[in-house]
Amino acid sequence: MARNTQAPEEVIRPAAGGGDESIFTHPAFGQIGASRVNGHVNLYDSDFTHQHYITVSITRSELHRNLSRDRHFGTEEVIEVALSEAQWASFVSSMNIGSGVPCTIARHEGKLIPGLPSPQNPAHQFKAEIEKTMADIQAALGSLASDLDGPMSKTKVAELRKELEWLSHRLTGSTGFVADKFDEHVEHTVERAKTEINAYTTALVMRTGLEALQGKSGPVLEYLPEAGSHQIVASE
């Protein structure tokens, strides 16, 4: 389906500095900006409670032209999303891969979106998945035990042996699979933590250097996060 085109609308009004100013509007005009933010927040697909994160905001825009110069002004906000430092790094370096990087929608059309609760310890979820697998296997073994009563033909014995082999394979395969996934999750979490720390340290060094050049240098420790602000939350 072809996309329709529409010319920008122009409104002319007196400019504050003299002369006239042209204001152009169009449904496709927008502005996008990214900011580093301080403040505790829980983010989608993150095992951390973050004190430092990044927001990306998209607003509608107007083009103001006066004295042969263009100026762009953001108007109403369309959406604001928040990303961890690791998510931001993936976002800017992983184009055309998959369906995108998880982000947390903070505002949409000027309305606040409900926040997320504190992240739960992922070990609990893996433990529950293993317990469910073991419960299913135990139930199947109980069913097999009831079939052992009374005489059995060779065919029945073969069927039971086949069922036992399948349960043995499921026991080792399923629990091993969950354990492997847990190891992968821990490794992935550690790598994301490294990205968070490296990005924050880089931003801190740049900020300290800029303030030193401006004669505003202060103690570096005042910029450090509170103890535990980047730890994995382990709720019992």
Taking all Cα atoms into account, the compactness measure Rg is 29 Å
Instruction: Report the count of strand segments.
Output: 7
Mean pLDDT level: 76
Q: What's the number of domains?
A: 2
Roughly how many Å apart are the termini? 53 Å
Q: Sketch the topology as an H/E string, one letter per element.
A: EEEEEHEEHH
Number of separate helices: 3
Largest sheet: 7 strands, antiparallel
Question: What is the share of helical residues?
Answer: 40-55%
User: Low-confidence parts, pLDDT < 50 over ≥5 residues?
Assistant: 220-224, 227-236
Q: Bin the strand percentage.
A: 25-35%
**Coarse structural class:** alpha+beta
Categorize the overall geometry. Answer: elongated
